[in-house]
Design goal:
This protein is of the alpha/beta class. About 50% of the residues lie in helices and about 20% in strands. The structure holds guanosine-5'-triphosphate (GTP) and magnesium ion.
Length: about 425
C-alpha cells in the first residue's frame, strides 16, 4: 500500500485552513509510517453524520476519486467509530484508517524498549477490540459471495460471531497480562525516581511537540546519542542523562515522548507512565520549533497535554528552537510575548546556550522544598542558617533536639539532608 487519500472534515467558513494544516500533519505521519503518495480532500460538513461522519454523498465522491486515481487506502483525519469505519469501507471498497489508528501504528513501528512496546500493545488491543466485528463481517461476506445463498450467509455469519467471541477472549486475556507487566515496569520506574529524589539532583524534563528538537537538545548537551530525525515520533522512550552547568551544578536531563494534536486518549492512557515522567521532575524545558508555521498552535497543544497529565504547575523554561531556520520572526516575537522565561536557541549552531544555562541556574534557585529535620542543639548554627534562607512552618523541641519543618531553596538541601527526620 503506497498511495493514500487523506480526508478531513470541517465546519464553518474558517475551518478549511485549519483542516488543511491538520491534513499536512497527517501527511507527515503517513510518510513516517511509509506511505509515498498522497491526495487531499477537505470536506465541509454541517454536522457529523452518524453513519459515515461526512455523509454518504461525500463518501461516494471519495469512492470515485479513489477509483480514478488508484488510491490504496483512505486515511481519515479524525477518530471515527468502528461502525462509521465499516460503513465507509463498504462504500469505497478500500481499507479505511483513522488518525488514531495511524498514530498507534506509527508508535508501534517506533517502540523499542520493553515499556514502550507494552504500552503500545495495550493501546492497540483497546483500539482493536471494538473493531473485531468489522473484520469478521468482511470475511463472512467474502465467503458468502463465493457461493452460498442467503442461508449459507446466515450460517457463516454465525461462525463469524463465534470467532469474534474467541478473538475477543484472547485479546481480553492478553490485555490483562500486558497491563500487569506495565504495572511491574511502572513500579521499577517509581523506584528509580525515588533514588533520583534521594540524590536530590535538580531534574529537567525536555518536553514539547513531536519534531521540535528535544532529542537534538539532549544530544548536543550530553553523550546521549538518542535517535533524532526529521520524522514524527522519532523517540518514544525516555532517556536520562547527567549534565553539568557552567557553575558546576549537576542536573539531570530527561528526553521525553513528543506530543501531537488530537493525541488519542487511548495512547495518553497507555503512555501515561512515560508521559508522567515530566510530572515528577522539578522543571520543564518546553522546546518549540519556531521555524514551523504552526509553532504557536503546537506550543499551545503541548501545554494542553501537560495540563492533562497534571504537570501544568511546574516551572517552565520555553526554548524557542531552530532559530537558524526561522523565516518568520513574528512567530518568535509572539512566543516570547506569550510565555515567561523564554530563550531563543539553535541546537545546530548552539546559539543561545549561555542564556539557556543562565535560566536553568536561576530556576534551580527558585526551587523550594519542604523538609522535616531533627537538629541537635549543638548544631544550632545549621538551623539558624536554614531559617535565614527558608520559611519555618513548624518548630518543636524534643530533649536536646530541634524538630523543624521548613521550606528551603533546593540548593541548600545538601546542608539539611544529614538532619532529615526518619
Ligand atoms: N535547522 C535546525 N534543525 C534542527 C534543530 N534542532 C533539531 N533540528 C532537526 O529537527 C528534526 C527533529 O529533531 P529531534 O531532536 O528528533 O526532535 P524531537 O523533538 O526529539 O522529535 P520526536 O522524538 O519525534 O518527538 C531533526 O531532523 C533535527 O536535525 C535546529 O536548531 N535547527
Ligand atoms: Mg525525540
Amino acid at each position: 500500500m503506497k498511495k493514500a487519500l487523506l480526508v478531513g472534515a470541517y465546519s464553518g467558513s474558517s475551518g478549511k485552513l485549519a483542516c488543511l494544516d491538520s491534513l499536512k500533519e497527517l501527511q507527515a505521519l503517513s510518510e513516517t509510517y511509509g506511505f509515498l503518495e498522497f491526495g487531499f480532500e477537505a470536506c465541509p460538513i454541517k454536522k457529523i453524520d452518524a453513519a459515515t461522519y461526512i455523509g454518504e454523498g461525500k463518501v461516494e465522491e471519495i469512492r470515485q476519486i479513489m477509483l480514478a486515481e488508484s488510491f490504496d487506502v483512505m486515511i481519515f483525519d479524525d477518530e471515527i467509530s468502528p461502525n462509521q469505519q465499516r460503513n465507509i469501507e463498504e462504500i469505497v471498497k478500500k481499507p479505511v484508517i483513522d488518525r488514531t489508528g495511524l498514530i498507534i501504528e506509527v508508535f508501534a513501528q517506533r517502540a523499542h524498549t520493553k515499556e514502550a512496546r507494552l504500552q503500545i500493545e495495550s493501546a492497540k488491543i483497546r483500539y482493536e477490540l471494538p473493531r473485531l466485528k468489522r473484520l469478521w463481517t468482511h470475511l463472512s461476506r467474502q465467503r458468502t459471495g463465493g457461493g452460498g445463498g442467503s442461508g449459507g450467509g446466515g450460517y457463516l455469519k454465525g461462525e463469524g460471531e463465534k470467532q469474534i467471541e474467541i478473538d475477543r477472549r484472547i485479546l481480553d486475556r492478553r490485555l490483562v497480562m500486558v497491563e500487569q507487566e506495565i504495572k511491574e515496569v511502572k513500579a521499577h520506574r517509581a523506584l528509580q525516581r525515588q533514588q533520583r529524589i534521594r540524590t536530590s539532583i535538580p531534574t529537567f524534563a525536555i518536553v514539547g511537540y513531536t519534531n521540535a528538537g528535544k532529542s537534538s537538545l539532549l544530544n548536543s548537551l550530553t553523550d546521549a546519542n538518542v535517535l533524532s530525525e526529521d520524522k514524527l515520533f522519532a523517540t518514544l522512550d525516555t532517556t536520562t542523562r547527567r549534565f553539568q552547568l557552567p557553575n558546576h551544578q549537576n542536573v539531570l536531563l530527561i528526553d521525553t515522548v513528543g506530543f501531537i494534536r488530537k493525541l488519542p486518549h487511548k495512547l495518553i492512557d497507555a503512555f501515561r507512565s512515560t508521559l508522567e515522567e515530566s510530572v515528577y521532575t522539578d522543571i520543564l524545558i518546553h522546546v518549540v520549533d519556531a521555524s514551523h508555521p504552526e509553532a504557536l498552535d503546537q506550543a499551545m497543544e503541548s501545554i494542553h497535554v501537560l495540563e492533562e497529565i497534571g504537570a501544568k504547575n511546574k516551572p517552565v523554561i520555553t526554548v524557542i528552537n531552530k532559530i537558524d531556520k526561522v523565516t518568520d520572526m513574528k512567530i518568535v516575537d509572539e512566543l516570547c510575548y506569550r510565555y515567561p522565561n523564554t530563550v531563543v536557541i539553535s541546537t545546530l549552531t548552539r546559539q543561545g546556550y549561555d542564556r539557556l544555562f543562565e535560566l536553568m541556574t536561576q530556576m534551580i534557585q527558585t526551587l523550594r522544598k519542604v523538609m522535616e529535620l531533627r537538629i541537635p542543639q549543638s548544631h544550632y548554627h545549621v538551623a539558624s542558617e536554614l531559617m535565614k534562607e527558608g520559611r519555618v512552618l513548624e518548630t518543636e523541641y524534643e530533649g536536646n533536639d530541634i524538630l523543624l519543618t521548613i521550606e528551603i531553596p533546593q540548593n541548600l538541601e545538601y546542608k539539611a539532608l544529614p538532619y532529615k527526620k526518619g
